[in-house]
Amino acid sequence: MSSELATIDGVDPAVVDMMDAVFADYRGTHPPAEGRIGRDPALWQALDELGLVRLTGSESAGGSGAGWREAAGLLSAAVRHGVRTPLAEHDLLACWLLDAISVPCDEAVRTVAVLDARGAARGVPWAGDAERVVLVWPSAGQYRVVDAEPGSLRITPGTNIIGEPRDDVLANIDTLAGVPVPVERVAQLQRKSALVRAIQLCAAMDRILALSIEHTTSRIQFGRPLSKFQTVQNLVSDIAAEAALARSATEAALAAAVTADWSGANLDFLIAVARSCAGHAASVVVRNGHQVHGAMGTTREHRLHEFTRPALAWRGEFGTVAHWDDVVTDAALRVGAVGLWNLITD
Amino acid sequence: MMLPRLVPPATADPASTDALRAEVRDFLAEQLTAGAFTPSVDAWLSGWDETFTLALADRGWLGMTVPKSYGGHGRSFLERFVVTEELLAAGAPVAAHWIADRQIVPALLKNGTAQQKSQFLPRIVTGECYFGIGMSEPDSGSDLASVRTRAVPVDCGWSLTGTKVWTSGAHHAHAFILLARTAPVDPAHRHAGLSQFIVDLRAPGVEIRPIMSMNGAHHFNEVILDDVFVPDAMVFGQIGAGWQQVTSELAFERSGPERFLSTFTLLAATAEQMASQDLFRSNDLGRLVARIAGLHQMSMAVASALERDEPADVPAAVVKVLGTTTEGDIADFADLHAGDTGADPGYVELVHAAVDQRPGFTLRGGTNEVLRGVIARGLGMR
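Output (structure tokens, whole complex):
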């Protein structure tokens, strides 16, 4: 095995250690609570003091000037420790969008809601916990964007399976002016949103693998560790292989996105590939992870669910697995036999 | 808390090989127009076409990594990877030179003597020397350390006696690299006492018997050796180091694009059939295309690791387990859809070839069960 750590490649290990330490410390004193997860202002402040909240913002605008690789490292560290907070929604999506259209971005915690033509959006991450909600809605063949006060919106609380806020948002778009933005900018937002969940999913699956190895090598049954049974080895090997495929596809999409500033010709295909691979990988990883942990892995007390349940939640957000299969199928049918290989390699 | 990476990150810029890919695509388009080959399934095992091999040699696409001093092209392993990926995706007949080019070249470069390199490399580069593999035996399939073919020292060389099996193309090839026991089994060190030899398949005492596949095709052979003399000059690598040599060869054998592209022509043809609505649309097509795309990226990353001379046996096992399962799933996917729908006869022929070849995908080069054990060892479970 190569010695690189299991992060998106190219992040300084000392930075990764720092990120790990923050989340490990927080998780140590904050076990998962029942019901809806709230955004913890104290954690947010601690992350802010370390420059991790506006990680990818330009330094002139009060950000840390880091890139997507560091951001992926940060998201992965949060996932590894089972800590939920809207870092991605705030930094990589909402604040990026405001920056891109030259709307000033203050200290407020933000998320993005992409509304339909009636001004409605379902399952907006963290909307009820945000201090501002960046609204995006279709208008006259392009889009408009506004940085809205939550008080001006009707927000109906909801959660995903692990209790992360996924709220319905209704805005009276007729009364909002907003800044016009081209369709391509919103397409970039959607690409970024999709890859955020792929990165989180990969981190969750890596952790399921680590827990499965740890458990099967320490749990003794029939007089030997579970890991000495070939059938158990096979289950864990398949977890490892699927998680590795998801990671390869996700890293390839991220590398292409960063190189082409989120607008490359083949980027939509690569992102759909990553989400399809990662989404299907989760089927095997979650099933086998639970299988090797036995009944104790199904309890609240055991930490396994902090990674298996989010994996299932996240693979269906910003596009279901079936949706991404559909996107890849459409692309394949469009190019036919002669173009299929170019589609994969270009 | 964090595990080391199982599969290395991709390091090569995909755009760096675009020009080479375009060159191979132009060549393949010319060959197709000229009717030089019909795209087929599993063509790296079943497409023996020496004329096509010579055409590739002409373009400098055989023995690409062989240094110029041995008549080669001094290209990188990644460039070779790109060329082979393009040829396999097109279903081109590459079986004649496949083993020599994939496995024997890196093995000779690593372990061959100057004489062996001079004797074989230039002829592999020009497409005039074909090799086979002599690892498996009737009683040694997945358990390679149990081989019983014996090599005993004789005057100026060795005498080999035993039976090798599943040797693809032995009936056409010039030579094979054979794994034999040179010292009795030591139960405490099963992997010791094994050695490799380069054996002339036309030498006295070598008998080649065909093994017919279930669809009537002839790719595999049994090779029986009865007191075959191999001169000292054809001892390959170190006597007693056979196991280490074989396992390092396996990383090349297991991670390549042939481990996920054996049915790519069928996948492409199925996309075509669904696009023209001759078959019902299914989004499983997208799922499979996505997996092939992911495997392409993963296999490229392993190729870069091999280029850097990093140990890659575990990531190679990952590529092979996932890739061979997926190429088999493609055969099954097509078969689920084609049936007696009256689909195009050329398409149905591809489906039939794929379902017949499929069982072999997850067997050859180490069964997936053995490879899962390799992965488990890499994970520290055994």
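Residues 102 and 252 of chain A are 30 Å apart (CA to CA).
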